[in-house]
Design a protein that fits this description.
single chain; 112 residues
C-alpha cells in the first residue's frame, strides 16, 4: 500500500512525529547472519565470553586479513565449511566493517 507523507501524518500523527524526530535513534554497526551467534554475543556482555570468529574479524584492517582468519578457524575445525562460506560471501559483498566497528586493543577493558 502506497501512501504519501501528508496522508500518513494525518492518519498517524504520533508515529510520524517519532519517525521525524532525531531522538531515540539506535545505530546499527554490524550484521550477523547467524542468529544463534548474535544472541550469545549480546547476552551478559563479557561474563564467561569466549571470542568468536566475528570478534577476530572485527580486529582486522582488511578483507584479506579477515579471510585468512576465517580460513584458519575452518582448518582448525572451530567453524564449519558452510558458515565459513557465508562469512566470506559477506566479506566480499559488504566488506570487513559490515561485521562491526574495528575492535582496537583494550576493547574488552574499555567496554565492561
Amino acid at each position: 500500500m502506497e501512501m504519501d507523507k501528508r496522508r500518513f501524518q494525518k492518519m498517524f500523527p504520533n508515529i510520524a512525529r517519532e519517525l521525524e524526530s532525531k531522538e531515540h535513534r539506535i545505530g546499527i554497526n554490524s550484521v550477523r547472519s547467524d542468529t544463534e551467534t548474535a544472541e550469545k554475543a549480546s547476552a551478559n556482555k563479557f561474563v564467561g565470553y569466549m571470542p568468536d570468529v566475528i570478534d577476530f574479524i572485527r580486529r582486522c584492517d582488511t578483507n584479506q586479513q579477515a579471510e585468512e582468519i576465517v580460513d584458519y578457524l575452518q582448518r582448525r575445525g572451530e567453524i564449519g565449511q558452510e558458515y565459513a562460506k557465508r562469512l566470506k560471501q559477506q566479506l566480499r559483498k559488504k566488506g570487513v566493517r559490515s561485521f562491526g566497528t574495528k575492535k582496537e586493543e583494550g576493547y574488552y577493558l574499555k567496554n565492561l
